[in-house]
Amino acid sequence: MTPSSQTDSWDAIVIGSGIGGLVTGSQLSAKGAKVLVLESYKIPGGSGGSFKRKGYTFDVGASMIFGFGKKGFTNLLTRALADVGEECETIPDPVQLAYHLPGGLEIAVDRNFDTFISRLISYFPHEESGIKKFYKTCWKVFNCLDSMPLLSIEDPSYLAKVFFKAPLSCLGLARWLPVNAGEVASKYINDPELLRFIDIECFCWSVMPANRTPMINAGMVFSDRHAGGINYPKGGVGQIAEKLVKGMERNGSEIRYQCKVKKVLLDNKKAIGVELANGDQIFARTVISNATRWDTFGGEGVKHPLIEPDQTPLSEKKWLNRYKASPSFLSLHLGVNNNVIPSNTHCHHLILDKWDEMEKEQGVGFISIPTLLDPSLSPEGCQIVHAFTPSSIEEWENLTTKEYLEKKKTDSEKLIKKIERLFPDLSENINHKEIGTPKTHKRFLTRHQGSYGPIPALKLPGLLPMPFNTTGIKGFYCVGDSCFPGQGLNAVAFSGFACAHRIGTNLGINKWALPS
Description:
alpha/beta, globular, seven-stranded mixed β-sheet
């Protein structure tokens, strides 16, 4: 590759091909912009990608996917694909998650809302009123979101149009911006065990208890799983990224793999392009980082951020004090014999032995069996078991090679034992095994500490302190789970829509009318 000249520039360069970056790139390309996505790995998607081994198609991250419904404005993955002429065939999941909790509490979150609520009330009949009021409040938040196009709230003209279209929804949504889900739950519910259940309901996707989970996020998740539902993309989660790339390229944009960006080029405090690890320079009118906020602006342990320390805006330094990296994961991708998985089991499971272990190292076990929905992901007669548990990178550093390998073996066996509570004899029926540690996630996903996003370092008022797409550097934007509204594929898709809209305003390529 030869260095690009200043005259051979792009409208936008996106650093990283995670779902947030790809939604940004594909949205901009759909508006007519010329976009270049630079990906350090050899496939797109990041933690929303897939990889193949010996006839298996494994999802890198979670396979519980929101945003694939058919109606409304919250089905962001459906909308993002449609905007570039693509579509994923999806398979509906009848149950979001089956909880296996302390004290024998076994609850499956049915796709049908009334069925789920009835099941929960059967465990806590004395809290029937509180249960209904809490989840009804979640629906109020969701209905506000679902009644308006979700684009950049940093664009005053967009906000004016949305307010004119849905003033009550805007006012209703603003009310919940500074509120956390725990505040709402404790207003209606008294039973400590039920409040702990609300905690694990939040933790399963936000990696935080309810009192640190924004109510807007909770309202979206707790309602969309019944409205749009959980729908798995046929062929694996990686299909989403591959189709976004295909649609983007059809519109004249480009993605380059194994291109590691060394730094963002600045001229008079304005982003003008990037420099690659091989010294090549590529120029653009706009630069977008889909890297984490730490990998972008620096932080503890980050040696080579994309922005030089002396160019880092003060607002980003403040952000570092408010948020910390969520734990990474110890993950197992297993190919197993079909007979070990009962045909009537649910696709997604969460196991917690003791309530006080929820936020501790490897305290919660997550299990996904996507082949129950899409058998084509594995060889005939086999199933995929993808299990993971939160794990901090500090637990894996400063080990000798021998110690590291021993820890991988010991900890993976411990996780398999936990899975065998649901599927006995699993260990004797494994025919393929991939073990990933936080160091694996850091290496292959190029993410600070292998983390899957920020969590509050202290109790914060809902989503208000979350950074948006704009930064203190002109022409430089961020997208992904370090931005409003946070973690999860649907959340980073929102971030991508918002980022593309904000940039589109600056480039003068946005349509005047709101999406219908």
